[in-house]
Design a protein that fits this description.
SH3 type barrels; 3 domains
Length: about 375
């Protein structure tokens, strides 16, 4: 790469001032704009950079048997003049992510596959793989920041671009890995990274954003479930809150909390899915106001701070695209917490994540079990 990045903003360097130049960095390369620019920026800063592309699922392969992610990442590595390797995590991905994905939907819950993949694959197995190859750091194109505090500890913070911030899907990272991870894009806005990629003439500068779930073709999770678990769907009743039968559903995994369209029932007022009754195989519907809850219970909590022993005040969000709101977190036994919101939250969904913040600092999160 011959172009110099003289247009970089000074804050771009703040997140890795702790690092000595010529350290070895493995960049998780997906073949997209963000990960490719991540590699370009780190090389420009003087790191010894190489790329790794994870092989995760046969469902994402093209007809010639080669993933477009591998092809594009290898092309970008050649363009940047860096080494590129692949890491075959397909069996582990199937066990940790895809099996979890199916199990959650078949239990009438809504999974967060990216949260699980980040914890066990990208910042678990991939980090170990990179370290075995001599890497001092693993870098990814996530829009988040890592800061070294005055006491020597490391904290994870929201990306500068609030709309692109990806801290929500990283709350399960172990605290101890933060000193070994770099997020070069955390101080940029998305439009800035696209502009930089174009100025560098990166071959993938205009490549569209990747699909939401990497292993689900065309983001059609219902078709994916039918293809892989065709005998796991059972029709049942759609009922109101009083138990009156209003219609029939096609199988609980086809419905989500808050859904209005596709119910196939007529009513005098709009009806929404307010609960999935797994025991009785029923979809429960009600008015919009029935979707709101003032609190929830969540399990498998992970803290990126010292675990609190009493109730604390936080900002919390219950889905990736929602805004965070004022709330309190009460620690309970068995890695369980109760979150109470200052303003009621709509469509609390079991299986999704609730994530806690203090300002822009990520404190932790947990998996939603039920309303409080």
């Amino acid at each position: 790469m011959t172009k110099r990045l003289g247009f970089h903003k000074a804050e771009h360097y703040a997140h890795n001032r702790r690092c000595k130049m010529k350290k070895k960095v493995a960049v998780a390369m997906s073949g997209g704009v963000d990960s490719s620019l991540c590699a370009a920026l780190l090389k420009e800063q003087g790191y010894d950079v190489f790329g790794i592309t994870m092989l995760l699922s046969d469902d994402s392969r093209e007809e010639n048997g080669i993933s477009s992610a591998v092809t594009d990442a290898k092309h970008m590595a050649d363009f940047l003049g860096i080494e590129h390797v692949t890491a075959d995590f397909r069996p582990l991905f199937s066990e940790k992510v895809i099996d979890y994905f199916f199990a959650e939907y078949l239990a009438a819950r809504t999974p967060n596959p990216c949260v699980v993949c980040n914890r066990f694959l990208k910042f678990g197995e991939l980090l170990s793989f990179a370290q075995e190859k001599g890497a001092d750091f693993l870098a990814t194109g996530h829009y988040v920041r890592i800061t070294k505090e005055a006491d020597g500890s490391f904290t994870l913070k929201k990306g500068r671009d609030e709309k692109k911030d990806q801290s929500y899907v990283l709350y399960r990272l172990p605290r101890e890995i933060l000193p070994h991870v770099l997020f070069p894009l955390g101080n940029y806005r998305k439009e800035e990274t696209r502009t930089i990629a174009q100025k560098l003439a990166l071959p993938i500068a205009d490549k569209p954003e990747s699909q939401e779930i990497c292993f689900v073709p065309e983001d059609n999770y219902r078709a994916y479930l039918l293809q892989h678990r065709p005998h796991s769907f059972y029709a049942g009743d759609i009922v109101d809150e009083q138990g009156n039968v209003l219609g029939q559903h096609r199988g609980l995994p086809f419905y989500t909390i808050g859904q209005r369209k596709g119910l196939g029932i007529a009513a005098a007022h709009p009806l929404y899915v307010i609960a999935l009754d797994k025991i009785n195989n029923r979809v429960v519907v009600g008015k919009d106001e029935a979707l709101y809850a003032s609190s929830l219970i969540a399990k498998n909590v992970n803290w990126l701070m010292e675990e609190p022993i009493r109730e604390i005040s936080v900002r919390a969000k219950i889905r990736y695209g929602s805004r965070d709101v004022q709330a309190s977190v009460l620690p309970l036994p068995a890695e369980t917490v109760k979150i109470s919101f200052d303003e009621d939250q709509r469509a609390v969904t079991p299986g999704q994540s609730v994530v806690f913040y203090s300002g822009d600092r990520l404190l932790g999160g947990a998996t939603i079990e039920s309303r409080g």
